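Reading a protein record of the kind used here takes only a little practice. An example makes this concrete, so a full record is given next.
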Amino acid sequence: MADYATLFDETGRELFLTHGHVFGAGMHNSVDHAPALPEGSALVYGHTHIKVNEESAAHPGLWLFNPGSVSIPKDGSHSYGIYEGGAFRHVDPGGGITMAQHMAQQNAEGSRDLSTLVDASAELQHLVQTIWRLRQPDGCPWDREQTHQSIGKNMIEEAYEGARLHRDRRRGASARGARRRAHAGSVACADRGGRR
C-alpha cells in the first residue's frame, strides 16, 4: 500500500491524501514532512484524529485538512470530512447530517449529480455506525481491546485472503471454490470464539 494518493478536483487543484505518519505539516504531534506541492494544493491526513481545516502557517499556500475521527476522536467530538466546491468541511455523524443525507439533499436540490454515490455513501455510513456500536461499552469486548499493534496480524491475514481471492479469479478459479475457502475460514474463526 502506498503512503499517499494524489487526486485532482474539477479545477485541477491537487489533493494529497495520506495517513499522516510519513507526510504531515507538523500539527498536533504529526510529522513535519510536507510534500512539495503547488500553491493552493491541500494536504489531507488523519493520523492525529484531531480536526484541522486551515492554511498551514509553516507551509504558506498549503491547505491542511484532517477530518478528525468517527470512532476515536482525540479532540472530543466525532467527525468526518466532506470536500465539495473546492472547500473542506467537518460533519458530526451523531447529531449532524450524515454523508448519505448530505448527498441525498444535494441530489434533491439538483446542485450536484451524486446519484452514483448515494448508495455507496449509505453503505459507508452504515459501516461507520457499526464500528461505533461495536466499540461502545456494551458492544464487542474483542473490538474494544484492539490497538493498532494487536490488529496488525489480522489485517495482514485479511490482506493475504483478499490477494488470494484476486489471484484465484485471475486464474479462472470458480467463485464457488473461493467462497468455500472463505467459508471454511469463517467457520474456523467462529470455532475459536471469533478470534482468527
User: Anything to note?
Assistant: Confidence is low (pLDDT under 50) at residues 183-192. Strands lie at 4-8, 14-18, 24-25, 32-33, 42-44, 52-55, 63-66, 80-84, 87-91. Residues 99 and 125 are 7 Å apart (CA to CA). The radius of gyration is 20 Å.
